[in-house]
Each structure stands twice: as structure tokens, then as C-alpha cells.
Amino acid sequence: MKLSQAQLEWIVREVVRRLQASSVGGSQVAVVAARLTIGDRLVTTETLRGKLAGISQVEVATRAVVTPAVVDLLRDRQIILVRGTSN
User: What sign does the dihedral 77-57-49-39 (CA atoms) show?
Assistant: First the structure.
């Protein structure tokens, strides 16, 4: 089953909402989704080297070229690729 970008984003929002609503050991769970924004027109694995620790989303310009290796890397690390910055 292949999910659309909108479906993936909804799932992430729902998981975050549920985690924030739950309590663990009497204290609220705080979830911070760290987003890395890349302004380059070409995004390669070298572009991302050393920048993905703690990142849950990578945002690139709508027209940026993202290499297949980057798509695979992000998928393997369960990081969401978001297109839409106006860079």
C-alpha cells in the first residue's frame, strides 16, 4: 500500500496528537517534530550528510531535484519529505 503525502502528514499529526494527550508516569509527553529546510535546487545524500539527527521532516522547494538515493535514505530513516518552500 502506497500512501500519499497528505495521508502521511495526517498520520504524523494524529500520532503526535495522541502522544500529547497521553500521560506517562503522571507527566505529559511532549513531542517535537524537528524539520530541516533545505534551500538547494539539488538535494543529494551529501547535502544531508550529518544533518538528519533528530529530524522527522525534510522540507525542500517545490521544484528542487531530489535524488532517488535521498528518497531511499529518508524512507529508511522514516523521515518525511515535504515539498513546498518557495526557494
Answer: positive
Q: Answer yes or no: are the C-beta atoms of 32 and 20 closer than 8 Å.
A: no
pLDDT in tens, 39-62: 899 999 999 999 988 889 999 999
Q: How far apart are CA 61 and CA 85, in angstroms?
A: 4
Element (H, E) at 28: strand 27-28
Provide the whole-model pTM.
Answer: 0.61
The residues spanned by each domain of the chain are 1-31, 32-87
CA distance 69 to 73: 6
Q: Which residue has the cell 503522571?
A: 26
